[in-house]
Specification:
The structure holds two protein chains of two kinds. Chain A is of the alpha/beta class. Chain A has helices spanning 24-39, 65-68, 88-101, 121-124, 138-154, 160-172, 187-191, 220-225, 254-267, 272-275, 288-295, 304-309, 333-349, and strands at residues 5-12, 48-52, 79-82, 107-115, 195-197, 200-201, 210-219, 231-240, 278-280, 362-369, 374-381. Chain A folds into two domains: 5-121 and 209-225, Peroxisomal Thiolase, Chain A, domain 1, CATH 3.40.47; 138-206 and 235-380, Thiolase/Chalcone synthase (Peroxisomal Thiolase, Chain A, domain 1). Classes of the chains: A alpha/beta, B alpha/beta.
Chain lengths: 385, 352
C-alpha cells in the first residue's frame, strides 16, 4: 500500500567539539544547504520538514524547531519535530520517510542536529530528577555494567573494545566531516588509554560533538524524474521496551532483536551477514559493536567479538561496520542516528568518497537510545525493492 | 490527500487540576487504561503508540522515557514521541496509519504545567541569542500581540472579555474543566490587568492534565465505535517566530492549514480551538472564517484549563466526543504551538 521513498540528497556539517563559528541555526543550515545542493534542488522545492534532536536541555532551547523556522525558510510549510532519545536521528528519518510513503508529501527534508558545546551533554543526561531516583552515572557509567555482562557471557578477551576503537578512529581519517581525526592509534597505545568506566577505556568512548545531518527524501514519482544516484528505502523498523524490569535482557535487548527481525522480513533479507554490504551501527562505546552484531542477527550469540578480531568489520572485510568512523568518532547526539542512516545512504549512492565500500548495494543504518531500549533502523539500496 | 479513512474512536481525559504531586507516569497511566477499557480491546491490538510532552516542563531530559513504563511496553512495541503537544503526536499516528503499517494507534499526552513558572519556561522557545535573554515571558509576548490587535481595531477588550465569559460559563457544564464561573463580560472588564492589555481571564489557566485518544482505520474504526469521528482533513503549518517579521493581527499559518484541511468546504458545527489567550481565539476564528453557526469551544477550551502540551490533544478529544454523542456532525479541532500562534494544526472530523 505504501509508496516507495528514496534519499536523493545527503548533507552534513563538519563536526567538531565546538563549532563556535556558527549558531545552532547556522549549524543546521550548513547541513541543509549541503543536502539541498547534493539533491540539486532549492528550499522552495521542499514540501515539509521533519526535524529531530535529543533533549532540549542539551542546548537550553525548548522546542528549537519553532525558532529555527526562519533559518529553514519554513514559513507556510509543515515543520514536524520528533524526539525519541538517542535513536532520534533514526526515528526522525523514518517519520520523514513515512510522510512520503503515505503519499502526503512528495519531497521532504529531514534534519538531525545537536550543538553539545552549548551545554554539558554528559551531565544533562543524568540530572537529579524531581520525581524519581537519580542515576548520576553519565552514559558511560550506565552502560559499563552492561558491557561487563557481555564480556562475562561471551568470554570476549579484554582487548576487543580497543580494537573497535582503533578501527573506527582510523576509518574516521577517511571522512572529512568526522569530528576526530586521530591517525596514530595502535592497539598497543589504545590498551594504555586510561580506564574511564571499567571495562570502558577513554579511547573506547565517543566524543561530544556539534553537528547536523540533513537528507532530502522523494517519492518514487519524483525520484524517477530526478537525475543522480538514489538510495531507495527498502524497509524501516522501530521498537521500544521499558528501561528496567526484573529479568530484562540488557546486553541483547528483545526490542533490538525484534526491530532487526522486522527490518529483515520487510526488506526480504534472509541472511543479513551475506546480503548486507555495509552497516552503519550506533556504537557510542566500542564494545557495542560486537554486542549489536549479535543483536542485529549478523553474528551468532557470543560470536560478535570474533568478527572484530577477525577483521570482518574492517573496511575491506566481509561486513564493514562504520567506515565513516561512526559514533566513536562523531557524536552530536540528535544527529548521530541520522548520520548512520545518511552514511548508509551515501554508501549505496556511491557518494562516500574515501570511505566508500566498493560495490555497496545494500546498507543498513541503525540507531538506539535510552537504556538500550529504543531502536530505529532502515535498509537502503541503490535499486528499487 | 489521505488514502485511508481514519477516525478517532475513543478518548479519555484526566480532570484538570492545579498542584498535582503525581509523576508524569502517574498522570498518564489512568487515561491510557481508561481509553483501552472503553474500547475493550487487547493492548496488542494497538499497532502504534505516540506520545506528546515537553522535557522543559518536566524539568528533566528524556522525561518521556518513563512513559514507556505507563504503556506497559512488553513485549516490545512500536512507539514514537514528539516534543510538543499530543495533537502533533496524533498527526504522526495518522501518518503512520496512512502508510498501511498499522490500523489502530493510541496517542497520549501529558502536561504538568503547575510544577514551575510556565510563563518563563515557555520563554525558552524564543530565539536563544536575541530574545530569551531578555526574558519577555510568554504572557508578555501574547500581550504584545493583543495590543497590536487592539491598536489596529481588529478587536476590542470587550470582545476579549466576551470570549472569556462564554468560556467560563460553558465550563460550568464540563466536569473536567478547572476554572468555571457564571460571569459576564462586563464583570470581567472591571477586573485589573495582569499584563496589559491582558487581564487574568484573558490568559489560559495553567493546569496539570493528561489525555489519550485512539485512532483506527476503516473497518477497524467501525468495529470499535458506534459513531467514529472521521478525519476528513488534517494539516499543520508554521510561521516565522521573529518579532516584527509577521503580522500580529492575523494568523497566516492557521489560514493555510485550515484551507488544506478543508475547513471552508462546508459548515462547522463545533470548533475546539486551542487558544490560550482570548484575543487568539478571535484571530483563529477570523483566519478560518468561522461564523455564527459554529459553536466555539463548548468545553470551555484552553482558557479554562490549559495543560500545556496536552491542551491541543484535549481539543481533539472534546471535538470527537461531540461527534460520538451525535450533538455535532462536522467538527474542527485545532492546536497551536510556540509564541503568538506561531505553529497551527487544523483537523476537520465528521460523523457518518
Amino acid at each position: 500500500m505504501a509508496d516507495l521513498c528514496a534519499v536523493v540528497g545527503v548533507g552534513q556539517t563538519k563536526h567538531a567539539s565546538c563549532r563556535a563559528d556558527v549558531s545552532i541555526a547556522g549549524l543546521v543550515r550548513e547541513a541543509v544547504d549541503r543536502a539541498l545542493a547534493d539533491a540539486n534542488i532549492g528550499i522552495d522545492d521542499v514540501d515539509a520538514i521533519v526535524i529531530g534532536k535529543a533533549p532540549d536541555p542539551l542546548e537550553g532551547v525548548a522546542m528549537p524547531e519553532l525558532w529555527l523556522a526562519d533559518a529553514l525558510a519554513a514559513h507556510g510549510k509543515p515543520v514536524f519535530r520528533v524526539h525519541t532519545a538517542g535513536s532520534v536521528g533514526g526515528s526522525t528519518a523514518i517519520v520523514a520517510a513515512q510522510h512520503v510513503m503515505a503519499g502526503i508529501h512528495g519531497t521532504v527534508l529531514t534534519i538531525g542536529f545537536e550543538k553539545q558545546s552549548d551545554g554539558n551533554a554528559m551531565w544533562a543526561l543524568s540530572v537529579p530528577i524531581p520525581f524519581g531516583m537519580p542515576v548520576h552515572a553519565g552514559a558511560g557509567g550506565y552502560f559499563s555494567p552492561i558491557v561487563r555482562g557481555y564480556i562475562k557471557r561471551s568470554g570476549a578477551p579484554s582487548h576487543v573494545g580497543a580494537m573497535v576503537a582503533v578501527k573506527d578512529r582510523t576509518n574516521a581519517c577517511r571522512n572529512p566531516y568526522a569530528h576526530l581525526h586521530e591517525p596514530d592509534w595502535t592497539l598497543e597505545k589504545a590498551l594504555e588509554s586510561p580506564m574511564m568506566w571499567d571495562p570502558i577505556r577513554f579511547v573506547e568512548t565517543c566524543p561530544s560533538s556539534d553537528g547536523a545531518m540533513a537528507l532530502v527524501l522523494m517519492s518514487e514519482e519524483r525520484a524517477d524524474k530526478h537525475a543522480g544516484p538514489k538510495a531507495w528505502v527498502h524497509a524501516t523498523a522501530m521498537r521500544s521496551e521499558p528501561t528496567a524490569f526484573a529479568g530484562r535482557e540488557q546486553v541483547s535487548p528483545r526490542a533490538g532483536e525484534m526491530c532487526a527481525e522486522d527490518l529483515w522480513r520487510k526488506g526480504g533479507i534472509t541472511n543479513p551477514a551475506k546480503e548486507i554490504d555495509v552497516a552503519e551501527i550506533y556504537v557510542p562505546f566500542a564494545w557495542f559493536e560486537p554486542m549489536w552484531l549479535e543483536n542485529l542477527g549478523f553474528a551468532s550469540r557470543n560470536e560478535g567479538w570474533r568478527w572484530v578480531e577477525d577483521g570482518i568489520t574492517d573496511i575491506g572485510g566481509a561486513l564493514p561496520v562504520n567506515p565513516s568512523g561512526g559514533v566513536m568518532s562523531t557524536n552530536p547526539i540528535g544527529a548521530s542516528g541520522m548520520l548512520r542512516f545518511g552514511e548508509a545512504a551515501m554508501q549505496v549512492m556511491g557518494k562516500a568518497g574515501e570511505h566508500q565500500i566498493d560495490g555497496a548495494r545494500k546498507a543498513i543504518g541503525h540507531a538506539y537510545g535510552g537504556g538500550s531500549q529504543f531502536f530505529a533502523m532502515w535498509l537502503v539500496s541503490n535499486g528499487k525493492p | 490527500m489521505a488514502r485511508r479513512d481514519v477516525a478517532i474512536v475513543a478518548t479519555a481525559q484526566r480532570p484538570n487540576q492545579v498542584g498535582s504531586t503525581l509523576t508524569s507516569v502517574e498522570l498518564i497511566l489512568p487515561v491510557i487504561n481508561e481509553v483501552i477499557e472503553k474500547l475493550g480491546i487487547e493492548r496488542q491490538k494497538i499497532g502504534f503508540w505516540c506520545h506528546g510532552s515537553c522535557d522543559y516542563m518536566s524539568g528533566q531530559p528524556f522525561s518521556f522515557v518513563a512513559a514507556v513504563d505507563a504503556i506497559g511496553a512488553w513485549p516490545p512495541i512500536i512507539e514514537s514521541h514528539v516534543e510538543g503537544d499530543g495533537a502533533l503526536a496524533l498527526y504522526e499516528a495518522w501518518v503512520k496509519i496512512q502508510t498501511g503499517e498499522c490500523d489502530v494507534a493510541l496517542v497520549f499526552s501529558n502536561g504538568k504545567t503547575t510544577s514551575g513558572p510556565i510563563d518563563r519556561i515557555l520563554n525558552l522557545q524564543a530565539d536563544p541569542y536575541m530574545v530569551t535573554p531578555l526574558w519577555p515571558g510568554f504572557d508578555s509576548l501574547s500581550a504584545l500581540q493583543a495590543r497590536a490587535c487592539l491598536d489596529s481595531n481588529v478587536l476590542t477588550e470587550a470582545d476579549m472579555a466576551e470570549v472569556a465569559a462564554r468560556s467560563y460559563r460553558d465550563a460550568l457544564n464540563n466536569p473536567i474543566a478547572y476554572a468555571k464561573e457564571n460571569v459576564t463580560a462586563e464583570q470581567l472588564l472591571a477586573r485589573p490587568y495582569v499584563t496589559a492589555p491582558l487581564r487574568a481571564h484573558d490568559c489560559g489557566v495553567p493546569v496539570d492534565g493528561a489525555n489519550a485518544v485512539v485512532l483506527a482505520a476503516g473497518d477497524a474504526a467501525r468495529g470499535l465505535a458506534e459513531r467514529p469521528a472521521w478525519i476528513r482533513g488534517i494539516d499543520h503549518r508554521i510561521d516565522t517566530q521573529r518579532l516584527g517579521a509577521r503580522s500580529m493581527t492575523e494568523s497566516f499559518s492557521t489560514a493555510v492549514a485550515a484551507h488544506k484541511a478543508g475547513v471552508g468546504d462546508d459548515r462547522i458545527d463545533v470548533a475546539e480551538l486551542h487558544a490560550p489567550y482570548t484575543h487568539q481565539e478571535i484571530l483563529l476564528r477570523r483566519a478560518m472564517n468561522l461564523g455564527e453557526g459554529t459553536h466555539i469551544n463548548p468545553s470551555g477550551g484552553a482558557l479554562v484549563s490549559n495543560p500545556a502540551m496536552a491542551a491541543g490533544l484535549a481539543r481533539f478529544a472534546e471535538a470527537a466526543e461531540s461527534v460520538f454523542s451525535g450533538s455535532a456532525d462536522r467538527v474542527l479541532a485545532h492546536c497551536t504551538s510556540g509564541p503568538m500562534l506561531q505553529q497551527n494544526l487544523v483537523c476537520v472530523m465528521e460523523g457518518e
